[in-house]
Amino acid sequence: MATPTSDVMAIANLLKRERFYRDTAQWDLCRATFHPDAAATYINVAWSVSFLIHQRIFFDAQADSTRIRHFRYEGNVEDFLRKSAQMHKGKVNIIHSSFDPVDIRVRGNRAISEAFCLVTSSLTIGDVDYELASHMRLFTRLQKLSDLDASEWRLLSVESSYVRDRLVTAYPGSDANMPLVMTNEVQAYPKSYRHLALVMLNRGLKPRPSLPHEDFPEGVRRLSDRNRAFLDSAEEDSP
Predict the structure, then answer these.
(1) Residue pLDDT, tens place only, 94-148
(2) How far apart are CA 73 and CA 43, in angstroms?
(3) Are 38 and 78 in contact (CB under 8 A)?
(4) What is the mean pLDDT of residues 158-163?
(5) CB atoms near residue 31 (< 10 Å)
(6) What is the widest separation between alpha-carbon atoms in the chain?
(7) DSSP per-residue codes, 152-188
(8) Coil, strand, or helix at residue 190?
(9) H or E element, residue 206
(10) Is residue 51 helix, strand or coil?
(11) Geometric angle at alpha carbon 160, from 10 and 170, rounded to 5°
(12) Dist. CA 113–CA 206, nearest whole Å
């Protein structure tokens, strides 16, 4: 793990700002945290459940080289932010909190980060208000660009895996009126995102049962190994 150098502190600040800008729909500022060349960027994360539930927006994957399947996005940052802006309801609802990128590793002009993050959102089902909370693990690759006014770090990729989630009523004591039932179909999903699956299935959306999650360590290890390979290749790029 890197010591708190100026690079590490700059990267931590950048990562936190990117989350905040996304939550508050400051799309231009969010875009500026990424590499200026969209073709160099890669996003592979789950859409926020309330986006899909309230907006029920789906996109033609043949139209733009991105893939949106089972509420998960895979593609470049510009398409991701454009679609996020289309789905945003005009107020803050999705919040990435408890985000602390403690594991930041720097090698030359490359860096990687891993961090836990709590994603919360509010939703209403059957006149009952809920809060859905998903604990995520975020994997990020970064590059230091020297062709800017000053050498600055920019994000190249963001990927995620599920750790665990919970669904609670916003008002204590209202559980008796809960319209949601933990069916066998729901229980077949990984425990890491079972409550998310419960909500999605209730709204007629079918989550993919193979999303990256902590109950399948091999899938998470592949994400981590891919980032470390990116960092190791920094030596090959050195003059």
Answers:
(1) 888 888 888 999 999 999 999 999 999 888 887 888 999 999 999 999 999 987 5
(2) 7
(3) yes
(4) 93
(5) 18
(6) 66
(7) EEEEEEEEEEEEEEEEEESSTT-GGG------HHHHT
(8) coil
(9) none
(10) helix
(11) 100
(12) 31
Pairwise CA distance, residues 88 & 55, whole Å: 8
pTM of the model as a whole: 0.82
The reported pLDDT for the residue numbered 63 is 36
Which token pair is 222? 């592949």
pLDDT at 49 over 90: no
Q: How far, in Å, CA of 94 to CA of 52, rounded?
A: 12
Residue found by looking up tokens 């932010």 in the block = 81
Residue with tokens 């590793």: 105
Which residue type is seen at 70?
A: H
pLDDT bucket at 54, cuts 50 / 70 / 90 = very low
* DSSP-derived secondary structure for 59-114: --GGGTS-EEETTEEEE-HHHHHHHHHHH--SS---EEES----EEEEETTEEEEE
